[in-house]
Amino acid sequence: MALLKIARMGHPVLAQRAEEVADPTAPEVRSLVEDMIETMHDAHGVGLAAPQVHVPLRIVVFMPPDAPEEDPVLALVNPRHEILTDERVEGWEGCLSVPGLQGLVPRAPRVSYVGTTPDGTEVSRTVDGYHAVVVQHEFDHLDGILYPQRMTDMRHLVFSSERHWRVDEDET
Predict the structure, then answer these.
(1) Looking at the annotation, which residues are catalytic?
(2) How many CB atoms sit inside 10 A of residue 157's CB?
(3) Cα 63 vs. chain centroid, distance in angstroms?
(4) How many Å apart are CA 104 and CA 94, to the nearest integer?
(5) What is the reported pTM?
């Protein structure tokens, strides 16, 4: 396994739609997923999309909050999601590709998603809360969208070290 370099905001790979993967069970997909998981853990992230490691493919890894302790990371190839409500809830987000910053982002509180694991298992879930936010954030990377593009008020884009001043928004 290897640590991969994380692309930062401004790199073109983060601004394009990622390509579908022809064979989700291919050995090179499994190898990439292993490297992505190692990279995510090393960077103290909760999710990572292949474009963030300079690979423009529709692959994500993330740690669902309800995952079993023995298998805390879910890897999905060619995932899709559906927003299940018009409601939006604002919450603070950060991103490994936007280091040192956090922003208040409106997200749907409930989504469904489907995808294929690298071993060929089909996954289909309906989730809410933090799990729904993580899914939307990571899946956005596959379409060339970073969380600041989802923000409605750029006054709420702050350095992580200064967010403690924003106690009024910490309740969201």
Answers:
(1) 138
(2) 15
(3) 10
(4) 9
(5) 0.94
